[in-house]
Amino acid sequence: MAIVGYRQALHRSFIVCCICVAGIQFAQISYYEAKNVAEAVQALHWQGSFILALIPFFFAFVALYTGQRSILRWFMVVAAACTALLVAHLMAPFGLRFSTLELAPPIIMPWGEKLSGFKVSMSAWNISLRMLIMVITFWAVWRARGQYRRGERRSALLLVCYLGLHLAAFMHGALIDLGIVRSIYTAAFAFAAVPLLMGFGLVMDLDERSRTQARMLHELEESNQSLLSAKRDIAMLAHFDPVTKLPNRAHFREHAGKALRATGEPGLGGALLLLDLDHFRTINDGLGHHVGDEVLREVATRLQSVVGEECILANLGGDGFVVLCENRGSDANGVRAAAIHLANQMMAALQTPMQVGEHRLQVVASIGIASFPQAGAGPFDIFRQAEIALYRAKDQGRHTTKFYQSSMRIAVEQRLAMDRHLRGALERREFSLHFQPQVDANRCITGVEALLRWRNPELGMVSPVLFIPLAEETGLIRPIGNWVLEATCDQLAAWIHEGVEFGDHLAVNISPWQLSDPLFVEGLEKLLSSRSLDPRRLMIELTESSLLFDLEGCITKLTQLRAMGIKIALDDFGTGYSSLSYLNDLPLDILKIDKSFVRTLRSGERQPLASGIVAIGNHMGMTVVAEGVETENQREVLLEMGCEFHQGYLYSKPLEESAFRRWLIEGGSLSRAEAANENNPDQSSGFASPEISANLPEKFQRA
After folding, report:
1. Domain annotation covers residue 313
2. Best-predicted range by mean pLDDT among 28-42, 331-345, 518-532?
3. What does the alpha-carbon distance between residue 538 and residue 553 come to, in Å, rounded to a whole number?
4. Are residues 435 and 385 located together in one domain of the fold?
5. I need a labelling partner for 535 at 20 to 30 A (CA). Which of 241, 408, 589, 664 fits?
6. pLDDT by residue (tens digit) across 286-307?
7. DSSP for residue 531
8. Beta strands 114-122 and 98-108: pairing type?
9. Distances (CA, A) of 430 to 268, 426, 455, 654, 661
10. Residue 683: what pLDDT?
11. Which of 370, 404, 438 is the last residue of a domain?
12. Domain of 547: which CATH number?
């Protein structure tokens, strides 16, 4: 069976092992049939030579049999050791095993046969040989253990059976050599188990391989039957979206390229419309991708009914769609009007809520439009213009349509410039913290909020409403957020050490990306410990959007932080996906009313939303803080509602650390004019401020 598969190294090594075992057997027979010492010594030389030849090939066989990959180097080491022992064996008078050998009374077998007997004394080389055999035997057991764990149990058990026989015979031979036992050597019989047991395993492996090949042949025949169908499916997948069945990006590029390149033909004009569903990720994450796929199919059907066959409708992947319309004979104004009319029809088609299973969903979209032909603009340029218009539509509130204008490209370039400056802002130490007090009904300070500001040498003071979303998109929000947290803890430690009276706590905003870090809690604990800070003096503020990432994970982490003593505040409550159910689950200390509710407060007018938030927070045992308090009238209305804790320009703008200390020293009397000179005129509060700095460079004001 080994010869049948001789092309494999495993079978070649097995052939050599079989030949060596046969030689060992014949030499063993000659040893027990020897009539004198000379014949016995000759038999011992042959037997030792075959054993030393067998060892490296048995090593190779076990390595290949158990699936060891790299064996050449170790095979050469074992072969070199056996070669050295072979030279010593041939030069020794009685071989490696014995230092003396004399005739002794014959050995009588139980059935009456007489075998030659010899009186021997063990050689020192005998120990070296047996040590080598023992090392390889235990190594083979270790390899069989790994083979068994991989699931090759039958092969591993066969190998272990042989190794057990071999080890028993080996110990029996050692007792004979030491003169403890008078018997014949059984090592040759143990070696004979190699062809028997291993041969049986190889036969079974070959049989399984044959069956596997027959099964594979059958599977290949079935595969060939379905090959043509698979080719058709592949062609479909290559050119059409599998969910919506619309042409995909590659198919659209192939068919639309000619139309977009035909910019010089007279009477040929058209428009490219890019449509992207707003907040589609919320549907996928909240309801599952199977619901999302059903929504995409329904959207594709509705858009196809509006677009018709005159235009090309394609799916660019996910929730992105593109429409290419050609209007021959139309001037630029006609193309623009037709494109906007089509966009309005597409928007109207999506207005009707769609029923997906048990869910009734309202889907809206943003659309960007670019017209063609344009002098010097190729297909890529037209597509890029539509993308820029789409991004502008999303930036300006979504659920709207924007037609590309050259000023949009300038805004994109400015955004790229801001991105370039933002990437090195941390290293250049351009970020700083400003501080805004939180006060009670008696105007006494109860705490302070740390707010991030960025001053760039070229861009000036950049509003957080501009650079925070950009940091989130580029992934820079994590290192920036970590810097804010460390700087806040450093400032907290400095104020406590210097005895600055700043209230009970220092609050800092935490971005959703920081909170989603699995090591956030552990890292914050180490940060506080390294500065010897009392966790009760720190408050972290998070917005409702943070809860959308992983509500259960947020609750777990916030509970751990609360157990440490850190206070938790929910910022901008009422502007996101407010839910009373998670208010009951979250370990909150403070509920902050968004400034948009405070801005509309008027004396004598009913304010059901604001008063409802205050009542909910008070009823749940939380402190309610109103943000954006700017007038005495707003303060009085809030106090009437039961909201006694405020934060806003009525008390102080966000101040630099030195100006904030002056504000504290002067009892909160720093004038608004002085505060304006000290600080960023941006009226933002935290990461999610809606205002844009008035002192930005003129080009950013235009953007």
Report:
1. yes
2. 518-532
3. 21
4. no
5. 664
6. 788 888 899 999 999 999 998 8
7. T
8. antiparallel
9. 52, 6, 6, 17, 21
10. 38
11. 404
12. 3.20.20.450
Q: Does 150 lie in the same domain as 99?
A: yes
Contacts 24+ apart (CB under 8 A), 653-658: 653/436, 653/679, 653/683, 654/434, 654/435, 654/436, 654/451, 654/453, 654/679, 654/680, 654/684, 654/685, 655/434, 655/435, 655/436, 655/679, 656/432, 656/434, 656/435, 657/433, 657/435, 657/491
Same domain, 382 and 446: no
Q: Kindly write down the DSSP assignment for every residue of 459-496, as one continuous string.
A: TEEEPHHHHHHHHHHHTTHHHHHHHHHHHHHHHHHHHH
Most confident of 145-149, 434-438, 685-689: 434-438
285 lies in the same domain as 355: yes
Is residue 233 a part of any domain in this protein?
no
Mean pLDDT of the chain: 82
Distance CA 257, CA 127 (A): 82
Q: Are strands 645-647 and 623-627 parallel, antiparallel or unpaired?
A: parallel
Q: What is the pLDDT of residues 90-125, one digit of tens each?
A: 888 888 888 888 888 888 888 878 888 788 777 888
Q: Are residues 110 and 258 in the same domain?
A: no
Number of domains in the chain: 3
> Which is higher by pLDDT, 419 or 524?
524
474 and 559 co-located in one domain: yes
Query: Rounded distance, CA 519 to CA 496, Å?
Result: 27
DSSP line for 234-271: HHHHHHB-TTT-SB-HHHHHHHHHHHHH--SSTT--EE
Residues 234-266 have pLDDT tens digits of 776 777 888 888 888 888 887 777 666 654 555
Residue-number span of the structural domain to which 349 is assigned:
240-404
Whether residue 191 sits in one domain with residue 170 = yes
3-class secondary structure, 354: strand
In a domain, 681, yes or no: yes
Residues 448 and 399 in one domain: no
Report the alpha-carbon angle 139-15-132, nearest 5.
Answer: 30
For 618-658, write each residue's pLDDT tens digit. 888 899 999 999 999 999 999 999 999 999 999 999 999 99
Q: E strands within 236-364? A: 270-277, 312-317, 320-326, 354-356, 359-361
Q: What is the pLDDT of residue 377?
A: 67
Q: Domain of 92: which CATH number?
A: 1.20.1070
End of a domain among 195, 213, 231? 213
C-alpha distances in Å from residue 506, one per residue of 78, 494, 496, 522, 658: 70, 12, 11, 20, 16
Residue closest to 318 by CA, chosen among 262, 384, 365, 267: 365
Flag whether 220 is in a domain: no
Tell me: the pLDDT tens digits for 348-380?
Answer: 999 888 888 888 888 889 999 988 877 666 778
